[in-house]
Amino acid sequence: MNQQIRAITELDRVIHEPGRLMIAALLFVVERSDFLYLQHETGMNKGTLSSHISRLEEAGYVEVTKTYRGKVPQTLLRLTPEGRKAFERYRRMLKDAL
Amino acid sequence: MNDLDLEKLLKRPRDYQNIDGVGELSMGAFALLYSLLLWLQLHAPATSIWHQMYAFIIYWTAMSLTIHYGSRAIKRHITYPRTGFVEYRSQFKTARGWAVMAISVCTAALVSAGLALAFRRHFAVSVPFSLFGLLLAVGYIWHARSMYWKWVVFLAMIAGTLAVVLLPANILDSLAGHSHFGSAVTSEALGAFWLTWLIIGALFLVSGGTSLWLYLRHTQAPVPGV
Fold first, then answer.
1. What is the pLDDT tens value at each position of chain A, 98 positions in all?
2. What is the rounded CA–CA span in Å between residue B214 and residue B71?
């Protein structure tokens, strides 16, 4: 098999899904953000966004913290160091593959 | 999603920083408040407090705090409840941040050295003093180039700066209250410097105000209690 094509098969499946890729890319450039920001930027509904975040959290790529802003509940999200490395690796492999 | 889309997506959080026009409002407030201070220093009598270092420090501190807390208040009460909260990475954590900082320091050092040389050799620095508005205009459009209406503001900045340069010397001289710093910085240069800050500051405020208005129009206010 061509090495370039093989690189595509080796892409991280957790990040490769478009919804999760959007979340990982947005979190990659910031320190942390809240759920509302990701919802606004990705255009996903709450349920879909939650399920993608859960999948990233299970993989250890995203850290979720529940807190309050005044009296309003707030969900803060941050890419873990593993998540950051995984995204960088994914980005490099995607560039090589394309 | 291809590589190009991914790179575009990575730039979105940076654009989000000024989604509400706070960056322009801050810059506009800074330019106008600075031009007010400059006006007071140029026109107040020599014995006035505006020529004292402590008054300058107090004014500068109050101005910085007002802009800092004003921006934070807009973010906290308008932006975060509508489109979400973002905490940006420290500039020290990214190579780009270090590069920007290094370039800024080098530019500041070069400009300072140039001015020091001009003062020592008694060169007239009127032209660079008058044309710094072009630099601010270029900086503005560099960040706002993706929004077409902001090109109108950019052109207004360029036109304003050039109009200041073309103003008769006696008008600029009276705007500066006939003040000058040695032979290098003439009263015309000071008048042009002051007027440029005023025009650029007003245009930044207009741009920021329009951005904020558009942001409020296109985003939904949060439902209380949710």
1. 566 677 777 788 899 899 999 999 999 999 999 999 999 999 999 999 999 999 999 999 999 999 988 888 899 999 999 999 999 999 888 888 77
2. 17
Indicate the SS3 state at residue B220. coil
Contact A30 B85 (CB under 8 A): no
CATH number for A3-97: choose from 1.10.540.10, 1.20.1250.20, 1.10.10.10, 3.60.150.10. 1.10.10.10
Q: Extract long-range pairs of B133-142: CB within 8 Å, 24+ residues apart.
A: B133/B157, B133/B160, B133/B161, B133/B164, B133/B196, B133/B199, B133/B200, B134/B158, B134/B161, B136/B200, B137/B161, B137/B200, B140/B24, B140/B27, B140/B204, B140/B207
B27-36, B82-91, B167-176, B203-212: least confident range? B167-176
* Subunit contact A21:B13, Cβ cutoff 8 A: no
**Given CB atoms, is A16 within the 8 Å cutoff of chain B?**
no
Q: Closest Cα of chain A to B175: distance in Å?
A: 45
Contacts A33 to B, Cβ<8 Å: 13, 84-87
Q: List the single residue in A22, A31, A32 with the smallest CB-CB distance to B9.
A: A22
Measured between CA atoms, how close is A83 to chain B, in angstroms?
A: 15
Chain B residue closest to A37 (CA)? Answer: B84
Question: Where exactly are the structural domains of chain A?
Answer: 3-97
ipTM score for this prediction: 0.86
Quick one: average pLDDT of B43-65?
Answer: 91
- Host domain of residue B153: 18-89+123-218
For residue B225, the chain A residue with the least C-alpha distance is A72
Q: How far does A41 lie from chain B, in Å, by closest CA? A: 8
